[in-house]
Give the backbone structure.
Amino acid sequence: KQWYQRRVRDKEVQQACNCLSEFSVQIPSILGDKALHGTLKNLRVMRGDAQFAKVVYSEFILSDVSDRLQNLADKCLQFFVEKGLMEYQFNSTSVKLHCTLINTRWNSSGPRTINASRILSEEFELQNFGDCVLNRIDINEMRADKTFVVENDKRYANVFNISLP
């Protein structure tokens, strides 16, 4: 059974890689052939109370204050849905763009929460955490069955990426 599950997973990963590769021809027109320069700022907690946080993230704010990145994410999602690789109920909500800074969900001893109240205080909440350039899209797979991973530890392994302008 594990062999079959792994084979199905490998097939799905390959389909996702092929889909992203096929989608990549649309990227220059979506981005206007301009790089995505921006800033990481504004700390937030993903779902829930700051006192019991599992995920703390930052927003990525484009320097040119455009919707290019949001448009790219939304069109990529739509492309994957149209190709039958994922299901999604389209509504007024766009893809949630963020940069995960803390994630305790995949802790080796199981999911934990942290009290993120202090780091979400005014002292840090609106802090600029640095300028950066988004220069690629990655497809990652969470793996717990590779030799470099400690037992019960889950990590993301890059399986495919495409460069952005």
Q: What stands out?
A: The chain has four helices and six strands.
